[in-house]
Amino acid sequence: MNYYERNAIERINEITDNSELRRHLLSVEILIKELVGDDPYLFYSSRTHNYEKFERVESLIELRLLILNKMFDATDSEVYRFEKLNALLLELTNQMYARTCLLYRNTLRNADYSWEDDYEVEGTLSCHPEYDKDNSNQHDTLRLEEDDYYGSDFAYMAALICEYEEYYNGSFGENIEMCSIQHNSENTPDMSDRQLGCINDMEDGTTWAEGWLCHPKLEHICMCHAVHSLVCHHSFSIPDMLRINDFWVEASIKVQHITDQTGKRWKDIDYDSQ
User: Fold this and answer.
1) Is the dihedral of CA 36, 41, 43, 44 positive or negative?
2) Is 67 domain-assigned?
3) Cα–Cα distance, 209 to 271 (Å, whole number)
4) DSSP 161
5) What is the extent of the structural domain holding 133?
């Protein structure tokens, strides 16, 4: 099969035999490694960007995603791990919102408006599985009993997908979930998360299962938005997601002091009269 043809996805979709799917998966990953090289971190950071190669790798990543999701068998151990990971990602998402609000409140308590003009407040949930060629890092990308069935080099591909997502989509590609607070001079430290407009309103007890997540063996799980984001809006397959073992919650704030050339403060500048 020519994996670069426009109908390659359609042809893969027609395959129902898992051994044949696995054969195509191995072929696709061989082609990816031939294009990318041994170190997935160097491909998109190279000064000499080869956009034809980028497009080929992108099409192969899409094929790999399809093949692995078709192969996903939802064994008892996979379903159990899915349940645990879903609960963890929901908890981490809630922590992201809560810590972002806490950081903002602490900043407001110590605010110095004689210097500070504005704040940029942001929380993120992301994954950063590290890869090393000597295969010594077995923590960030788990090895599971179904690995032989799939045959994928999950560690290499997870690192490459992270690089690919960040290159094409910036922070939206890098992050699974994001939140922010719009600073207002009337905001006070005693305001609730809801009053600050920073709550996890994506979760209302309705599952976020769509697409490949609508698997009959997973229908009892109320899937959180972070799982939906990873599988439906990123290039990670369900088997990829189950092996990622490195999640980061970060809350950050930028304190801004803004002036023009005369030293006039941002809040005192009348832009309409200029």
Assistant:
1) positive
2) no
3) 47
4) H
5) 74-256
